[in-house]
Write a structure and sequence with these properties.
The protein has about 500 residues and is an alpha/beta fold. The protein is built from 20 helices and 10 strands.
Length: about 500
């Protein structure tokens, strides 16, 4: 989401870092660049002006112009101000006793409320809380059916043992505008059912509405007075920009919302809503939706988000995702196998699936410090990764344990079984052997072995990494040596 903004920030600070000393004028010039970048990212004008003024005051107050590394000092100040603008951290859901805790979601049409309700249910189920999801969106008949399908899927497939129930009265649905007010009774009966079934949390999915639609806003007021929800969350589409902030302001004035959930955060939007909504409404950002699946809901951490914007990566979130997918025992066993050079194709397949469950490959790689900018033009072909899995599945158990048993006839058989070519199968086996060799050197070869493995890894070209296109070379400076066409062919022996 923040690729363009991050690139502009980094360009500005690179210019400052190249100077031995900077003046107050240099600081103001840099902040003019930052101001332009924020406005292009569709951040609210008042927020931009306040942010830039605060950074300039901090820079002058901390005597950045006299410091030895003024560029680093400026990055530190901007980082802290970004955290203040989006923070503080407040991602927990306040649970009450006796249950149920009532959570009401509201927002504009098409902002992703129905999907977000299912994601919230999955989030709570994973933490051991039983949930009932009530369909109070009666303006759109498909919303009830959609929420029912997703809720039952969360109950079946979601992580955790807690139950997830669904409550709906589909006969109360009507065309848009004709069912106004009916949702109040549905919410009241859903609360009675939640108390009877003794669930921990009741989530109310209300109808999408424009903040200028007085009739439907009055319905929200009535639901608020009738069931008195403990938490009111506004779902904001991160792609809308400043208009989302204006509507959030109107909803907050009417309902006093407790938090904001930003949906569609994995899109290529400019990110203005994320940087503006907290400052404008005063309500904290609780969660961000980072995908279509029900488990694609993350807690919002301003410090980590500020790190991503400034190209520092987000290693903490990356580690948390990895811990959810790989247990400590599995990680220890994998490390021992790597150290001994005993990795098999089954291990490779298991690790590939774990990484893919963590999210889109490009998104996961972008969490590494300094990698985000390098991935701007990289295209990740997820279908190519599916083909790799197909190749491994087409091998016998013995072949997976020892790929050296793959001769030409076996490679042809694997290619036929996986719908690929013998060249693709051979390429995968060569890559796997290279990884085996390097991990063994890194683990037990002493300092010399580690340095050799690093040099080999630095020389790895993007074409050797499956599924990645336009990937820059992993090493530092590229060689200027030109490889001749004849080097690809077998050389004729010279006569003596």
């Amino acid at each position: 989401m923040f690729e363009t903004l991050s690139e502009r920030f980094n360009s500005t600070f690179r210019n400052l870092s190249g100077r031995g000393r900077i003046s107050e004028e240099n600081i103001r010039e840099a902040m003019r660049e930052v101001r332009t970048a924020l406005l292009e990212a569709d951040v609210h004008l008042e927020v931009v002006n306040e942010f830039c003024d605060e950074v300039v005051q901090d820079a002058i107050g901390r005597a950045v112009t006299k410091s030895l590394r003024p560029g680093e000092e400026m990055i530190s100040i901007v980082h802290q101000r970004l955290i203040d603008m989006m923070g503080p951290v407040d991602s927990h859901i306040l649970l009450v006793e006796p249950p149920p805790t009532i959570v009401m979601t509201c927002g504009l049409q098409g902002s992703g409320k129905t999907t977000t309700c299912a994601k919230l249910a999955a989030y709570l189920k994973q933490r051991g809380r039983s949930v009932m999801v009530a369909a109070a969106d009666l303006q759109r008949p498909a919303a009830v059916e959609q929420l029912g399908i997703m809720t039952r899927q969360v109950d079946r497939e979601g992580t955790g043992q807690a139950k997830v129930l669904f409550y709906a009265e589909p006969d109360k649905c009507a065309e848009y505008g004709r069912a106004a007010g009916v949702a109040v009774g549905v919410c009241r009966r859903a609360l009675a059912q939640a108390r009877k079934t003794n669930v921990d949390v009741l989530i109310l999915d209300t109808a999408g509405r424009l903040h200028i639609n007085e009739e439907l806003m009055a319905e929200l007021d009535a639901i608020n007075r009738t069931v008195t929800p403990h938490q009111i969350y506004l779902v904001v589409d991160a792609m809308v920009g400043q208009d989302a902030v204006n509507s959030a302001k109107a909803f907050h004035a009417r309902l006093a919302i407790d938090g904001v959930i930003l949906s569609k955060f994995d899109s290529d939007a400019r990110g203005g809503a994320a940087l503006s909504v907290k400052r404008v409404t005063g309500a904290p950002i609780k969660f961000i939706g980072v995908g279509e699946k029900f488990d694609a809901l993350q807690e919002f951490h301003p410090q980590r988000m500020a790190g991503r914007i400034l190209g520092m990566g987000d290693v903490v979130s990356l580690v948390e995702r990895a811990q959810q997918e790989v247990s400590e025992d599995e990680a220890v066993r994998a490390a021992e196998k790597m150290a001994q050079g005993r990795l098999t194709m089954d291990d490779f397949l298991k690790q590939l699936r774990s990484i893919r469950r963590m999210g889109p490959i490009k998104q996961v790689l972008g969490m590494l410090p300094g990698v985000g900018a390098a991935l701007k033009d990289v295209e990740v072909d997820e279908k190519q990764l599916d083909r790799l899995e197909g190749i491994v599945h087409s091998m016998t158990l013995a072949e997976r344990k020892n790929i050296k048993t793959l001769n030409k006839s076996r490679i042809k058989r694997v290619a036929r079984g996986s719908g690929t070519t013998p060249g693709e199968v051979g390429k995968l086996t060569r890559q796997f052997e290279m990884v085996q060799k390097m991990t063994k050197q890194m683990a037990g070869g002493g300092l010399g072995g580690k340095m050799k493995a690093i040099r080999e890894l630095s020389g790895t070209h993007a074409s050797q990494i499956p599924g990645l296109q336009n990937m820059p070379t992993l090493g530092g400076r590229l060689s200027t040596k030109t490889v001749g066409v004849k080097s690809r062919f077998k050389q004729r022996k010279k006569r003596r």
